[in-house]
Amino acid sequence: MKRIVLLRHGESVWNRENRFTGWTDVDLTAEGIEEALNAGRMLKEKNFVFDKAYTSYLKRAVKTLNCVLDKLNQDWIPVEKSWRLNEKHYGALQGLNKKETADKYGEEQVLIWRRSYDIAPDPLAENDPRNPRFEIRYKKVPDKELPRTESLKQTIERIMPYWKKYIFHDLKIADNVLVVAHGNSLRGIIKQLKNIPDDAIVHLNLPTAIPYVFEFDDNRNLVKDYFLGDEDVLKRKIEAVANQGKS
Predict the structure, then answer these.
(1) Is 34 an active-site residue?
(2) What is this structure's pTM?
(3) Start-end of H helices in the chain
């Protein structure tokens, strides 16, 4: 049996403030750090030993991974960071309060921006200081590859070549791989793994810092998937994510 564990980062400052975050590099809250540590405890209770870990360029994911590995006493394993695992870019919505945006544009429109497959928010202007072309961390990324906004479809197109070449390829030689990323970047991966239809992906909401385990046979065929932890806590967290965009 081979396993890939997908983990959304713990609660961030802008999660707490109910803002569209995207590529904005916000930190974890104290609650988010505790969520990350608890994810590490859950994985330790199940005796997970990871061969390698992957995360994005954004600190909320990086710090979550560090907390998890610390609880596992596996800080020594190889870790690879990639901008391709960053969250979906929310364009001009980044920084806006989701409830206030729903009050202005309606819950249905906000749901489309947050969860639809192929509709992206308005892009950032080229001279917008939030444009990733101004950030030093992306200086080695060709400008044409840096998004100014993204739909989930575009996010998947950014992630999946990297997923196939590196992360999924690791299962040829590894038994357990950990990926710590973001709500939408992970939704894109899950959509591909489980063949979720385009019109059904809108209903998938990922909770913060609850390990999601995917088990594969030796030929890397998906056998089953499941969340760790208490079902009531899981349900409550999923509902909280779904309600963020409501007026």
Answers:
(1) no
(2) 0.95
(3) 13-16, 30-45, 59-72, 98-105, 107-115, 152-162, 168-170, 183-194, 231-242
